[in-house]
Amino acid sequence: MSRHTRGRGHRSPHYHEPRPYHWSPRERQIFAQWICERQMDNETQLIRLQQQQSRVVVQILDAERDETPHGSQNPPLLRSRRARNLLRRWDELDRQIRCARHIESLLAPIFFLAATNDEEFVSNDPMTLFFWGQCQKNYPNIAGINLDVPHKEVNNR
């Protein structure tokens, strides 16, 4: 490591030109489209999880309704074993819902900035770079995708 980089740690190769200038308009369009698809997938998953969670609540209430009162001084919160197992399932669904909401909060601003040709789009932001890497897994030849013929990639050889 040279003395010139000692205090700075590792920097992105785009450190001095961080704004959207090194992204082609096509790359930004594909990235915005990919982020939009992820957002929609996440939204449908969130709706599905919330529906499952409300069904589990109904099942817990059904399981508890038929149960006889508990004899001890400190009865458990849920008397039936089936209801306790369902409560574990509810907790798992709740965790997944919170994860989906967090992903939604990460994707929304990136999508807004990528979709609008906004100067505020910081392309070397760590979150943007992470999602850009995920996007490149779906479109490995992203720089050579042909605008005129959809779903066809340009042969660069």
Can you walk through the features of this model?
The protein is mainly α. The chain has a domain at 24-65 and 80-143. 57% of the residues lie in helices and 0% in strands. The longest helix has 41 residues, at 25-65. The protein has three helices and no strands.
Radius of gyration: 25 Å
**Most strands sheet:** none
Q: What class, by secondary structure content?
A: mainly alpha
* SSE ordering: HHH
Total strand count, please? 0
Strand content: under 5%
DSSP helix count? 3
Query: What characteristic shape results from the CA principal axes?
Result: rod-shaped
pLDDT averaged over residues: 73
Low-confidence stretches: 147-157
Share of residues in helices: 55-70%
What is the end-to-end distance? Answer: 37 Å
